[in-house]
């Protein structure tokens, strides 16, 4: 069930980050401040890689596109990311994630753990140049956003999600083979339906909690677009049991070679009074809408868990104009969140603030302030 805490304290904090053989970095170690941390340097210096390393610990994947092999420094056989992490209540953990060839290895306080256990212990939300895909891209990005939020507030969510993925894989294999008798499909379709019901209910509960945070965020960033509407689709027709729908669609799914309905087809979207469909938004408005979604998710996490997640802002100055930079920075500073920012120079909104500044160039990091 959803966990609620009335008190919201300062955010969780990354005390130290160590990176080995990740992209352009051979080996580097960075001690971070509890508030604003700025990484500046020329394009291609490796600034984004540092945010990517933190994101990997929280999501088990990169926010950048491309093959996983691209994460490796040239000539290296594997990479590792280590961090010392402090929760708002003062509890500290040592986190580690490594990949060698096709194998991931996660560690928590020196012990081997599952990737799910690792990412549950840290929360990172990142706004970067590709974040507009949350609004303009395909449904997969929006499901990832939604499921990450549910995962961090519902302890029981991961089990049905994993069972669903296994059942989906098995049914798709039967569809591609094209030889399975109806009786072979029934167990997997029953499993898909049972798990989908749990997944759908958890997603709906989370969106109900997220809605007021989204409204507040959009009113702050895009007040000119008016009232906000959140729409959700489960991935199969409303009011129709999924198991029966899968059986009815089996022939069509065999022709396509994959399952066309279920939780893996769910989607959600925002509409505004002045822009009912996402196609009505400009590129700049897409960015601000995506940013609002991410800030809303961070605020809900803080409300439910009692502490803010770490916030990463990649290339802030080029993604947002001055007033919006200022609004975001003011909000995060007031919340007490730890913030990691990159840019080719110090963003103007951060100039008057006490921030720890690092210079990054050719895979090396040097503290300046």
From TrEMBL:
Residues in coiled coil: none
Assigned keywords, A-Z: ATP-binding, Cytoplasm, DNA damage, DNA repair, DNA replication, DNA-binding, Nucleotide-binding, SOS response
GO annotations of cellular component type: cytoplasm
Major subcellular site: cytoplasm
Single GO MF descriptor: single-stranded DNA binding
Cellular compartments annotated: Cytoplasm
Gene3D superfamilies hit by this protein: P-loop containing nucleotide triphosphate hydrolases (3.40.50.300), RecF/RecN/SMC, N-terminal domain (1.20.1050.90)
GO biological process terms, semicolon-separated: DNA replication; DNA synthesis involved in DNA repair; double-strand break repair; SOS response
Domain AAA+ ATPase: 33-364
SUPFAM superfamilies for this protein: P-loop containing nucleoside triphosphate hydrolases (SSF52540)
A Pfam family matched in the record: SMC_N
Positions with a binding annotation for ATP: 41-48
Known role: The RecF protein is involved in DNA metabolism; it is required for DNA replication and normal SOS inducibility. RecF binds preferentially to single-stranded, linear DNA. It also seems to bind ATP.
Family statement drawn from the similarity comment of this UniProt entry: Belongs to the RecF family.
Name of the protein in its database record: DNA replication and repair protein RecF
Source organism phylogeny: Bacteria, Pseudomonadati, Pseudomonadota, Gammaproteobacteria, Lysobacterales
């Amino acid at each position: 069930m959803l966990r609620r805490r009335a008190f919201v304290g300062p955010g969780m904090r990354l005390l130290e980050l160590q990176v080995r053989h990740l992209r352009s970095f051979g080996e580097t170690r960075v001690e971070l401040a509890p508030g604003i941390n700025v990484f500046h340097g020329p394009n291609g210096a490796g600034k984004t890689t540092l945010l990517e390393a933190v994101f990997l610990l929280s999501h088990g994947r990169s926010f950048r596109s491309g093959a996983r092999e691209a994460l490796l420094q040239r000539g290296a056989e594997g990479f590792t990311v280590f961090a010392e992490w402090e929760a708002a209540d003062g509890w500290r953990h040592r986190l580690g994630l490594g990949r060698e060839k096709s194998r991931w290895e996660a560690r928590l306080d020196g012990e081997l753990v599952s990737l799910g256990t690792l990412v549950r212990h840290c929360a990172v939300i990142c706004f970067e140049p590709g974040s507009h895909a949350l609004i303009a891209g395909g449904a997969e990005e929006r499901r990832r956003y939604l499921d990450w939020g549910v995962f961090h507030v519902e302890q029981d969510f991961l089990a049905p999600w994993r069972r669903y993925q296994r059942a989906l894989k098995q049914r798709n294999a039967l569809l591609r083979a094209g030889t399975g008798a109806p009786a072979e499909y029934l167990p997997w379709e029953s499993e898909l339906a049972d798990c989908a019901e749990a997944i759908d209910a958890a997603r709906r509960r989370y969106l109900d909690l997220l809605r007021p945070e989204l409204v507040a965020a959009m009113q702050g960033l895009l007040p000119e677009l008016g009232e906000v509407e959140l729409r959700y689709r489960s991935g199969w027709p409303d009011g129709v049991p999924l198991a029966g729908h899968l059986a009815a669609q089996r022939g069509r799914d065999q022709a396509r070679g994959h399952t066309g309905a279920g939780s893996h087809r769910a989607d959600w979207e925002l509409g505004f009074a002045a822009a009912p469909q996402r196609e009505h938004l400009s590129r700049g408005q897409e960015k601000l809408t995506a940013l609002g979604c991410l800030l809303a998710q961070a605020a809900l996490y803080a409300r439910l868990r009692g502490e803010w997640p770490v916030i990463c802002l990649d290339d802030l100055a080029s993604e947002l104009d001055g007033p919006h930079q200022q609004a975001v920075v003011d909000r995060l500073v007031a919340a007490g969140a730890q913030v990691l920012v990159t840019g080719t120079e110090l963003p103007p909104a951060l100039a008057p603030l006490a921030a720890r500044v690092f210079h990054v160039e050719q895979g090396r990091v040097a503290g300046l302030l």
